[in-house]
Amino acid sequence: MSPAPEGKAPVPRHVPGPRGPWAPVARDLERRGTAVVWSRVAPWHPDLTAPARLRALLGDDRARYEARHGADAERFAAGRLLLKYAAARALRTEPDGIELAYGLTGRPLVRGRPGVTLSLSHTGDLLCVAVTVVGCVGVDVEDAGRRLYDTGLEPRMCAPYERAALARLPEGERDARLLRLWVLKEAYTKALAQGRLLPFTTFGFRPDGAGGGAALLRDDGTAVADPAWRFTTLPLAGTHLVGLAVRDTRQVRVGQRDVECSDPLDRSSRKTAENLLVSDSKDSSGSTELVGKGLPPWPG
Hints:
alpha+beta; CATH 3.90.470
């Protein structure tokens, strides 16, 4: 059953541990096709899971987990468990039956189920997962109180017109605007599965002044006419900011679906993105079935 069209961006759902509550996540997936889930590391700590079950849940990630130590190992295990539980909600199955795989740039996939796309971000002990059944997704989460402006970040992250716009803002608003740009760019490149192959200074965003939405811009500041992409920033628990990028590709054949998420800004990088993304799709499944209908973009 295809998700019903609904214009609002999903609200980040707090899931305190494996027992949920998961009903709000399932509703977001049914109504919007996309859900955002967040939690802390502690409730998913590997010591809270029986060793045999932990081994089963980690699957092929077990060796990567055992190669880590301390807080890094705990965060890795917690992130993989949260990914599996979120994917299980999308597939209406148990997390034990979810097998994670990874594309060439590290994007998490559900092996054999190309209709579900995942993204994971963390900062400190906070974990954030986005899951979609409508195409491709990227998520990023950062501490909302970070001081960013005039720390040397802008030349590496902002297009020239973004830097000019930041300089025109009142001083007290610059950190918040720069944070919005940062999480949006991280989310977009994750959705493309390009990582840092796409330099942040070669594209930009024009945030909606009233809400969390944003328009994607080229390096010259002109808007990109691709209504399938939806970009937004979402407050999380009053302490963090989430950047979310989703592209609805359900009218495209699955074998082409991730190629359609390649970079619409810089055509010279398109071939690189296509090679990486097609590899991701083939790693997950060779299926070419058609999937669903499109959703309207979020306002803004």
